[in-house]
Amino acid sequence: MPGTLKLYPGVAEELLGSKAYYVRAGLFRDVDVMLGVHVSSEFATSYGQGGMSGLVSIQYSFHGKAAHAAADPWDGHSALAAVELMDVGWDFRREYLRLQQRSHHVIFNGGDQPNVVPPEAGVWYYFREMDYPHIKELYDLGNTMADAAAMMTSTTVTRRLVGSAWPTYFNKVIAEDQVKNIQAVGMPQWSDADQTLAKALQKEVGKEVTGLKTKVNELKAPEPGTGGGSDDVGDISWNLPMVYMMYPANIPEVAGHSWESGVAMATPIAHKGSTAGAKVQAMTAIDILTDPVLVQQAWDYFRTVQTKDIKYESFLGPADKPAIELNKDKMAQYLPELRKYYYDPAKYKTYLDQLGIKYPTVK
Question: Among 165, 184, 210, which residue terminates a domain?
Fold first, then answer.
């Protein structure tokens, strides 16, 4: 069976910080099809654009002049005031933006202490929308507000593109093949213990108690999106045929990006779901390697449907670089602690055995 398999890590997915750089570096120029994958509580694949937003992630840093906040504040220019004015301006403008937009921010630098006029301050924005022109419109509007806030406070502002993502668009031809493999593998056989843990967690966090899903999803036509999460695999999907399979290694109804989403990861739920997903990925890869017509049809769809009227244009500028230093301090603090909990398969049959946890442990 001739062919080459390449593995690409999803580095800094939550920062949307790597895939656009992969594309810019030309890592996919010799790739026929991309099989992406993401953890879920469902077993599914999809095609078309769907409901995921694209975005730009921007840090605005304001630069002012320090002064004693009580003795001579008139000698200072507050960078924090500029941040606050930008935030107020954006929140007032938000009412008049499209319903599809999502925008949110955190102040990553608010100055040092109250009795010093802050000479440096910064705010980090995510601007999300459903297509490139509308994302670019939000980006330009954010830049205008930052410049205006700097003018109002006699400060200056610099900006940094931390990450970006196009809205995802997945290939119908490969999705139709992949869903057949999902149906062939089927949902894992959950044990009573698996269902007990799932229902207990759902009850604990105040969600509907439904337990784990027992049926795979059908392939459905995409519906117009109204805005939502983002994933920088979108940049890949606009450069070659791609699908993004969801595999059932988590518990339904739990909140994303929270401790709830981490409960299942060391349990048989995750192992069974990951194994099922791996089988489907392998079966789909074999289909691609052994059926050149399938690959040709996927590219025909990519060229004549997906990119017929829309052409990829990166948000990255020539000088933009990956923000590899962002979590350096956190990693230095927590990595030594994490090493204490690395799984040792030579000593323990399962990770839960290593932790001394009886499965399932519930209230």
Answer: 165
The last residue of one of the domains, among 165, 190, 221, is: 165
Write down the residue that tokens 């999106």 correspond to: 225
Same domain, 243 and 253: yes
CA distances from 297 to 172, 241, 300 (A): 10, 10, 5
Residue 302 lies in a domain: yes
What are the pLDDT digits (tens) for 183-207? 999 999 999 999 999 999 999 999 9
**Euclidean distance between CA atoms 106 and 119, whole angstroms:** 18
Q: For the segment 143-159, what is each residue's pLDDT rounded down to a tens digit?
A: 999 999 999 999 999 99
- 3-state DSSP call for residue 276? helix
Count of positions (residues) in the chain: 363
The Cα–Cα gap between 174 and 35 comes to 9
- Both tokens of 294, joined, read 């399938």
Nearest Cα to Cα of residue 127 among 91, 102, 156, 164: 102
- Together in a domain, 202 and 333: yes
Judge if 112 and 141 occupy the same domain: yes
Residue 15 placed within a domain: no
Rounded CA gap, 167 and 54, in Å? Answer: 4
Range of the domain at 99: 54-165
- What percent of the chain clears pLDDT 70, i.e. is strictly above it? 100
User: Distance between CA atoms of 349 and 363, rounded to whole angstroms?
Assistant: 25
Indicate whether 223 and 335 sit together in one domain.
yes
Helical segments of 107-166, H only? 132-153
Domain count, the chain: 2
Helix and strand tally (H, E) in the chain? 10, 6
Locate tokens 């044990």: which residue?
191
Render the burial of 113-150: b for 16+ CB within 10 Å, e for the rest. Answer: eeebbbbbbbbbbbbbbbbbebbbbbbebbeebbeebb
